[in-house]
From TrEMBL:
It holds the Pfam family Beta-prop_EML_2. Residues 689-716, 840-997 form a coiled coil. It comes from the Eukaryota. This is Cilia- and flagella-associated protein 57-like isoform X1. InterPro entries: Beta-prop_EML-like_2nd, CFA-57, WD40/YVTN_repeat-like_dom_sf, WD40_repeat_dom_sf, WD40_rpt. The keyword Lipid metabolism does not apply. Residues 358-628 form the EML-like second beta-propeller domain. WD repeats lie at residues 350-382, 472-513, 596-627. It comes from Clarias magur (Asian catfish). Keywords: Cell projection, Cilium, Coiled coil, Flagellum, Repeat, WD repeat.
Length: 1135
């Protein structure tokens, strides 16, 4: 449908995790987690408590599986719907845009139960569900399925994964299933399969290139190393670990495994994780630590199975999710793990609901939400800080909840009674109980003095101050919902009986009533308080004075909850599909509505905060979503612009007394610490002065000794200086004499070397002249010998051609003789078959019991087929004979059918059958002799062919040379194509940089517009406040005070001019025009370069075509020579 007016709602925050999603917790870094909530994926920033919604595709019915690439850049999400869908998102930007959508409709797949990225993030695995259980190998960027394979016939597949060191190797695990697949030549082929029929493999993780570990439902760890399966036993010890395994009927399953650089972590039983580290550097792993989920921090039922486990890329944090929808984390560098080898998890942010949310209420004076769930807990949330203020677990399931308008009390309904509790700073305390059984709905009025509660088909109104009660009787069936009017004088209710009542809360009677054949789910007053809005399973109705004024159908969906803004502009309706519909008020038949995807299961409760800032939706998927309400300009629709919430809380007297006692004790302790610190400082000062005197005396003595030593060393230095000067003078004289002698010797050696060089140069010239003469003589001799060899080879070639023609004639003659001989054999064999057919026709009337004969004929038939196949492989000319033999076999089959009808006379013809067997054996012997002759001919032909292969080596070398040249041309073509790709990539980078600059300019302009809008808002507020001050014109003191407040509120800030400079706009336009010109010039240059590259490519193609023609010609010549050799071998064998 189209949008309802100009109002929008956007998901802002989520309290809750979808439990049934595979791999429902991801840890891209130390400060961020990703988990599914409703129909969305949430990227939650832990320190800021900020959520970023990664929206699913339109029309999805929920999520099935998540996976994150190893570089933390891409997120793949498997979605449920009519057909399975896989959506890939890019996580490097805040908006997380969709990069690709892989649709199962094209593949006939309804769901994908497991996903996995390759190590380089280029490929994606998708495992479909039953009954086909097909595995798809995608190059997901191109949306191309490279290969598919059926991983299982009927067993459930739990996980698929890539080998992180080899993207062509895949591991698949499941119930009685542990297999390895390999990608070979565009298809997935099963490699190694391990025998685990009795085990249910729940998870696995790769440890190295040839090693991975898996966990079973019975608590075993199975390691595969070098294609061998090793049983590592059960990490859970029931003797030493009774605390973590207290349920005898629950197996300590290994439900999650993840690897890290030092080893791996695995879940062992309920609420327990064990860390294993590599002990010997090979494949030996030893348990290094145990980490538990603390029992006392969340629930009295501590059995939480670990569903997903992940480690951050820096390996500093381990995070887990449980089967009850809780998220925990722990720092792996904590000292407790390294010292005590045991530690406990802590909540990732706060406890969450693990069951369907059945009740919700919002406070009007504080930013608090109260929710109750089937998990037996009541949570108090702060929707401004997006944090859990407090929660309490009860032994009995709370059915409904309502928070007092002042935020200091809460009303909780149970099956036995309704409890009024005070919200203290450290918990909830029951102050009063009301005897109301099976209370499914309770709600405070606007001032908090009264509350209405339902008990099956009755409605009770209680006054908390006076303890008076009023009973409203009228509904014949269970009451579903009750709401107070704005003035608290009326109450509206609806029930499963299809009745809507408008009650007078003062008299206890109803003023109007509407009955229809339906089952209402929720009801509320319209914005004008004169009509009632109600939703049943298929309609939204507006009722006034007991009559239906407007009725809008749901078009196939069931409505479950309703809410509206306090200004009355919009109506929000929740559906059984988990979506939110927004209607514009007043309701009209032709007005469209807007649909927003929200939860994966039906919405149970909806409410709008008092300031019209947020819409809150609760669902059976145990998630609470916070939506921000905005207009078309993105501004929130707050009814009160600056709403001040109260911050007071209730504290018990004992708590205050304990706090004062602790403060006095701490003050005394501080005084004692201060006096002790002064005493210690004085003692340290005295000790320091003593030590300083001793150190000073030692240093003075050392200084005097060092001064005496310096004097002695200075005298020694003078003596050594005189000695070194004398020795240096004598050495200089000696080296001058040696240098002169060496110069004389060097000049004599140079003269001798020059004479030798002149002599060798003359000798080299003489040798060069002699060498040239010898070369000329050899060249002449070579030409003469080549002419002689050419003539001799020509004569030999003519002789060879003559011999070849003779051999061809002989081969033709041999062929004719062979054909004639084959025809004779065929004719004789055909006569034998005819004789056999005649004998069979004679026996048609007498043969009834021919079972032995049928077996013998089948043996004969198989032998004839074998002989026919051999003859067909050896001699193609006998194809006609084979067809006739098949016809004969058909006749034999017809005869055998007739023999089955005449089995009664078989015993009388046994003797004649034995004679036929003898004749058949004789024919078999003749066939075997002919087969031996043919095999001998074939062996002789093969020998002759091997001899002829040696003669054609020269032709083969020429063919290889042509192939090499063709390969060089192909390599040149590849280089040209690579160059084109590089040019295209450079141009795309330049274009992207230019677009980024344009985008930055636009963003700056947008910021200036936002500043202008903020100043306008500020001026509007200031004028409204000035108008409010006009009331105090007759009261100067109040007027002065109000103007002082206005001055302090608005004039203390620095005023900023918000006008956009015209030069900035001109510069922006100039930059855009310059960028367009640059892009146009680059496109023109790229077109020219592409044209030149195409011409070069065409030239290379023509040259390659010429080479291919020459290669085909050489192949034809080679084939002719081979045929000649075969004919020659055949003629020799015939001779």
């Amino acid at each position: 449908m189209a949008m309802a007016g100009n109002l929008h709602i956007h998901p802002y925050h989520s309290f809750g995790v979808c439990k049934g999603v595979r791999n429902n917790l991801l840890l891209p870094d130390e400060r961020t987690v990703i988990f599914p909530s409703g129909k969305h994926s949430i990227r939650f920033h832990i320190p800021e408590r900020r959520s970023e919604f990664i929206h699913g595709t339109k029309g999805n019915k929920g999520l099935l599986s998540l996976t994150l690439s190893l570089d933390q850049r891409y997120l793949a999400v498997s979605e449920r719907g009519q057909w399975g869908t896989i959506t890939i998102y890019e996580l490097k930007t805040e908006t997380c845009p969709m990069k690709q959508v892989l649709k199962g409709q094209d593949l006939g797949v309804h769901e994908f139960v497991s996903l996995a990225f390759s190590a380089d993030s280029k490929y994606l695995l998708g495992q479909s569900g039953g009954p086909k259980w097909s595995l798809f190998y995608w190059q997901w960027i191109e949306n191309e399925v490279i290969a598919t394979a059926q991983t299982s016939n009927s067993a459930v597949v739990s996980q698929v994964s890539f080998n992180p060191y080899d993207e062509k190797q895949i591991c698949v695990s499941g119930k009685g299933l542990l297999k390895l697949f390999e990608l070979q030549k565009g298809s997935l082929r099963q490699g190694k399969s391990f025998r685990v029929e009795k085990e249910n493999i729940l998870c696995h993780a790769w440890l190295s290139r040839d090693c991975f570990i898996s966990g079973t439902e019975t608590g075993k760890l199975l390691m595969v190393k070098s294609s061998r399966l090793h049983n590592l036993g059960m990490p859970f010890d029931s003797k030493t670990d009774k605390k973590g395994f207290s349920a005898p009927g629950l197996l300590p399953s290994v439900t999650a495994i993840t690897s890290f650089s030092k080893g791996f972590a695995c879940s062992t039983g309920v609420g327990l994780v064990c860390l294993y580290e590599n002990s010997d550097g090979k494949d030996g792993y030893k348990k290094s630590a145990e980490i538990r989920i603390p029992e006392e921090t969340y629930t009295n039922q501590p059995l939480q199975a670990i569903a997903t486990m992940c480690i951050s890329p820096e390996e500093e944090t381990l995070a887990i999710s449980t089967d009850r929808g809780q998220l925990y984390k722990i720092s792996l560098s904590s000292p407790e793990i390294s010292l005590n080898k045991k530690d406990y998890f802590e909540f990732l942010c706060h406890p969450l609901h693990s069951g369907s949310i059945t009740g919700m209420s919002v406070c009007s004076s504080k930013p608090l939400i109260a929710t109750c769930s089937k998990d037996g807990t009541v949570h108090i949330w702060n929707y401004n800080a997006m944090f859990l203020e407090q929660f309490k677990e009860f032994d009995e399931e709370p059915l409904c909840v309502s928070i007092h308008p002042d935020g200091h009390s809460i009303l909780v309904g149970f099956s036995t009674d309704v409890c009024l509790m005070n919200l203290l700073n450290n918990g909830m305390r029951i102050v009063q109980k009301f005897n109301i059984h099976n209370c499914a709905e309770c709600v405070f009025n606007h001032d908090g003095n009264l509350f209405a509660a339902t008990s099956n088909k009755l409605i009770y109104i209680y006054n908390i101050r006076t303890q008076n009660s009023l009973e409203l009787v009228g509904h014949p069936k269970k009451v579903q919902s009750v709401r107070w009017s704005d003035d608290d004088q009326h109450l509206v209710s609806c029930g499963l009986d299809g009745t809507v009542y408008l009650w007078n809360t003062l008299t206890g009677t109803y003023e109007s009533k509407n009955e229809t054949e339906c089952s209402y789910a929720d009801v509320m007053f319209s914005p004008i308080n004169e009509s009632i809005l109600a939703v049943d399973r298929s309609n939204l109705k507006e009722i006034q004075d007991g009559r239906i004024q407007t009725e809008l159908t749901s078009e196939g969906l069931s409505y479950t909850a309703i809410a509206r803004t306090h200004l009355g502009e919009r109506i929000f309706v929740g559906t059984s599909a988990g979506s939110v519909r927004v209607f514009e008020y007043p309701l009209e038949q032709k007005k469209p509505w807007t649909v927003y995807q929200a939860h994966s299961r039906p919405i149970t409760k909806m409410v709008v905060t008092p300031s019209d800032q947020f819409l809150l939706t609760a669902s059976e998927d145990n998630c609470l979503l916070v939506w921000v309400i905005t207009d078309q300009d993105g501004r929130t629709l707050e009814m009160v612009q600056d709403m001040d919430y109260t911050e007071e809380i209730l504290c018990s007297k004992s708590y205050l007394e304990d706090k004062e006692d602790s403060i006095s004790e701490l003050k005394a302790h501080v005084e004692w610490q201060r006096s002790e610190l002064e005493y210690r400082l004085n003692m340290k000062d005295v000790d320091f002065k003593k030590n300083l005197k001793i150190v000073m005396q030692n240093y003075v003595q050392q200084i005097e000794a060092l001064q005496d030593q310096i004097k002695v060393l200075s005298t020694e230095k003078e003596d050594q200086k005189v000695f070194y000067q004398d020795t240096i003078a004598t050495m200089i004289e000696k080296y001058t004499k040696d240098l002169k002698d060496e110069e004389l010797n060097y000049s004599k050696a140079m003269v001798a070397e020059h004479d030798k060089y002149v002599y060798l140069e003359k000798k080299m010239q003489m040798m060069q002249q002699n060498h040239e003469k010898k070369l000329q003589e050899r060249e002449a001799n070579y030409l003469h010998s080549m002419e002689g060899m050419k003539q001799s080879y020509e004569t030999k070639l003519k002789e060879f051609q003559d011999k070849w023609e003779e051999e061809v004639k002989n081969s033709l003659a041999y062929k004719e003789a062979a054909e004639f001989e084959i025809k004779d054999i065929y004719h004789s064999y055909n006569l034998d078959l005819q004789m056999e057919a005649e004998t069979q026709e004679k026996l048609q009337l007498d043969m009834k019991f021919m079972e032995k004969k049928i077996a013998q004929h089948e043996a004969l038939k198989s032998r004839i087929e074998d002989q026919g196949c051999k003859i067909n492989n050896l001699q193609q000319e006998t194809e006609d004979l084979k067809k006739q033999l098949k016809d004969a076999k058909k006749n034999i089959n017809d005869l055998t059918k007739e023999k089955e009808d005449q089995n009664n006379t078989m015993n009388d013809q046994i003797r004649y059958i034995e004679e036929l067997q003898m004749s058949i054996k004789i024919r078999d012997k003749s066939l075997e002799e002919k087969q031996a002759e043919l095999s001998q001919l074939i062996t002789e032909g093969k020998l002759q062919e091997e001899q002829n292969k040696l003669r054609s080596e020269k032709e083969r070398s020429e063919v290889d040379q042509l192939q090499r040249t063709l390969q060089e041309y192909k390599e040149d073509l590849r280089m040209v194509e690579n160059k084109l790709r590089e040019i295209k990539a450079e141009s795309e980078e330049v274009i992207a940089d230019l677009k980024e600059k344009v985008k930055s300019r636009d963003q700056a302009l947008l910021r200036e517009r936002h500043k202008v809008r903020d100043v306008n808002i500020k001026v509007h507020r200031m004028t409204s406040d000035i108008h409010n001050c006009a009331r105090f014109v007759q009261e100067p003191k109040k007027l002065k005070k109000s103007f002082i407040e206005l001055h302090e509120r608005y004039m203390h800030q620095d005023e900023v001019t918000m006008e956009i400079d015209a030069q900035v706009m001109q510069e922006h336009t100039r930059n855009t025009e310059r960028l367009q010109n640059i892009i146009a010039s680059q496109n023109a240059s790229h077109i020219k370069e592409l044209k030149h590259e195409k011409e070069a490519y065409a030239k290379a193609v023509r040259e390659s075509g010429f080479l291919v023609q020459s290669l085909n010609y050489q192949r034809a010549v080679n084939m002719k020579l081979q045929n000649c050799l075969k004919g020659k071998s055949a003629s020799r064998s015939a001779g």
